[in-house]
Write a structure and sequence with these properties.
This protein is mainly β. It is 0% helix and 48% strand. It is built from no helices and eleven strands.
């Protein structure tokens, strides 16, 4: 079975850092691209970052570009979202997802599996 296990959330002060992990299992990791999305209370799920697992190429939403870095470890079937200079507006539940075969997309509708989510709270 396909499983995505997200971890690494927590509470930090503005300007702090966190690293989220998403461990994948049950499929060939490099055949599917991966992404991170977030959802704050009362808001829709929004794209954060995506990565081509075979090449490591990544790109980001404007709101996080320059502060967040997405990487992957093929040996561990894991993607990492390093989040620096966190802001209160980054507070949300963060979800990793697997995009449907052949897609490298910012649309959550084209992701077929999701992790359980991990809460990130940025507050002083």
């Amino acid at each position: 079975d396909v499983q995505l296990q997200a971890s690494g959330g927590g509470t930090v002060q503005p300007g702090g850092s966190l690293r989220l992990s998403c461990a994948a299992s049950g499929f060939t990791f490099t055949r599917y691209n991966m992404g991170w999305f977030r959802q704050a209370p009362g808001k829709e799920r929004e794209f954060v970052a995506r990565i081509r697992t075979n090449s490591g190429f990544s790109n980001y939403a404007d709101a996080v570009n320059g502060r967040f870095t997405l990487s992957r470890d093929i040996a561990k079937n894991t993607v990492y979202l390093q989040m620096n200079n966190l802001r209160p507006e980054d507070t949300a539940k963060y979800y990793c997802g697997r995009s449907r075969s052949g897609y490298f997309t910012v649309s959550s509708a084209l992701y077929d599996y999701w992790g359980q989510g991990t809460q990130v709270t940025v507050s002083s």
